[in-house]
Write a structure and sequence with these properties.
There is one protein chain. By secondary structure, the chain is an all-alpha fold. The protein contains 18 helices and two strands. The chain is 77% helix and 1% strand.
Length: 428
């Protein structure tokens, strides 16, 4: 099949308005999620923050968003993904108004970080809503397009620092209400609830995924690809400002170049996974991340060398995000929103520790290297974990190298397959 025919088939296979409005919902939520990180140098200057306080301030929204992802994913199974998205955006608008009008101390900023975390919970709902109407052969690309909403980080990094300089950093919370209201209205009018939702289950049935081994393998891998992405992208303004002395209003320009690559490559990662296999792609990408994060730990003297190294790192992370979520809906059919929320939650929690460790490392050793080295260690764990499960995965629920099975294709081994609750269910 040619690329043109493949694109034509994709456009006809699902509900494109739902996919595009899900992308915008996720994109603007992501921008709001990292606002404190984008404005960190302005906030730190006003409240005279230490390196560890900066790291903690940047980590709080990441942790808060992570902890809210799984509950929101479960809620979406009861009230529908579209309704869950609209409810979340309504709460975010209220939180932004609070930040605009009432934040006035470092403790208030930390509280606002928890509020911004509501936006970070959008992940599982956005991906499942956007890709829900697409068949398995196009899941990777649909997930990649919806997931490319992490490009919202670029909006925050490029726009928030200069706006904070012109109007004051608290006013940026007020300006951020505008795109969120746009996303709310577009999703309300144009999105449809996908038909892939299973019958409602008891809460205990959804929570069983917490004991599923495959879910935790995905958690580890996603802690590298997405945890590395959100942790580093949130902390990049502080890193470039403190390590290289880049002016506060310009740090976003250095950071945005890096993040754009990751966002674009997420779509490519989903598409390549559909054609080459998500497992095969993850092996390559984790190897790249292992090497380049190690290079970043040397803290190159020239900031543009650091940018070049991080561009390659973020490209591999972005494509890796797409590869992970090509596999997830194949493994957890019907429970994609819950599975995506859990995996996104653990990945984001890991990402929250990265800026925290970077800040602690800077304060106690005078260097950001310990944070990067922690990423090297985690990537090694992810590679080993993938190695031990890949053969079992390709003999049960996914095809060779991690490609989707054709509907007529039988598993190579006539054996039991793991159900979404981690038990063995006979294959019909």
């Amino acid at each position: 099949m040619s690329i043109r025919e493949n694109i034509r088939g994709f456009l006809k296979a699902g509900h494109l308005p739902t996919l595009l409005t899900s992308f915008l919902y996720f994109d603007f939520c992501f921008a709001i999620w990292v606002l404190n990180g984008a404005m960190a140098l302005f906030i730190a200057e006003e409240f005279k923050l230490s390196p560890s306080q900066k790291g903690f301030m940047v980590a709080v929204p990441v942790w808060a968003g992570a902890l809210m992802r799984f509950p929101l994913g479960i809620l979406s199974q009861y009230i529908g993904r579209k309704n869950a998205a609209l409810l979340e955006m309504g709460i975010i608008l209220g939180c932004l108004f609070f930040g605009w009008q009432f934040v006035g101390s470092y403790n208030d900023v930390l509280g606002m970080g928890v509020a911004l975390g509501v936006a970070g919970a959008s992940f599982g709902v956005a991906l499942s809503l956007g890709s829900g109407s697409y068949p398995p052969k196009y899941k990777g690309l649909a997930m990649g397009i919806a997931g490319a909403g992490n490009s919202g980080t670029v909006l925050a990094l490029l726009l928030a620092p200069p706006m904070a300089k012109l109007y004051g950093w608290k006013q940026v919370y007020g300006w951020a209400m505008v795109p969120m209201l746009v996303a709310f209205l577009l999703l309300w009018f144009f999105a449809k609830e996908p038909s892939d939702r299973e019958a409602k289950k008891k809460l205990g049935e959804y929570v069983k995924i917490l004991w599923n081994r495959d879910a935790w393998i995905f958690n580890i891998i996603y802690s590298v690809t997405f945890g590395g992405f959100i942790g580093l992208s949130s902390f990049l303004p502080v890193f470039f400002g403190d390590q290289y002395g880049i002016p506060k209003s310009q740090v976003g320009q250095y950071s945005a170049i890096i993040v754009i690559v990751a966002s674009v490559l997420r779509i490519a990662g989903g598409w390549l996974s559909d054609h080459l296999g998500g497992i095969r792609l993850l092996y390559w990408l984790c190897g790249v991340i292992l090497v380049t994060v190690g290079m970043a730990a040397t803290l190159p003297a020239n900031p543009w060398v650091a940018v070049a190294v991080l561009v390659v790192t973020f490209a591999a992370m972005g494509a890796g995000n797409g590869a992970v979520f090509q596999l997830v809906p194949l493994r957890f059919k019907g429970d994609t929103a819950v599975a995506s929320s859990l995996i996104g939650e653990i990945g984001a929690l890991a990402g929250g520790f990265l800026p925290f460790f970077m800040g602690l490392g800077k304060q106690h050793t005078g260097s950001f290297a310990p944070g990067f080295l922690a990423g090297v260690a985690l990537t090694g764990v992810a590679l080993v974990s993938l190695f031990f499960v890949s053969r079992q995965w390709t003999s049960t629920w996914v095809g060779a190298h991690g490609k989707a099975r054709e509907s007529s294709e039988e598993p190579r081994l006539p054996m039991q397959v793991a159900g979404s609750d981690g038990t063995k269910a006979a294959r019909s």
